[in-house]
Amino acid sequence: MNKINMTQILNGLTNSVVYSLVGIVILLIAYLIVEKLTPENSWKEIVENKNIALAIVFAAFIIGISIIISAALHG
Fold first, then answer.
1. Angle at the Cα of 40 from the Cα atoms of 38 and 41, rounded to 5 degrees
2. What is the mean pLDDT of residues 46-58?
């Protein structure tokens, strides 16, 4: 059996954290771009006016972009 090296564990952990942060940053940038393209303030519409349909659309957008980012980062 192979003995797992502590540097391998730290390398894997570091890579996971870095790729996670890169994915989150890309997701936030994508959200801000969509927010600028839409005519109204989507967050205000969802929170204050309780627009469920818009919340579902944005949830689907976030899940879709997250899947794309995950596949791109994973390789």
1. 100
2. 91
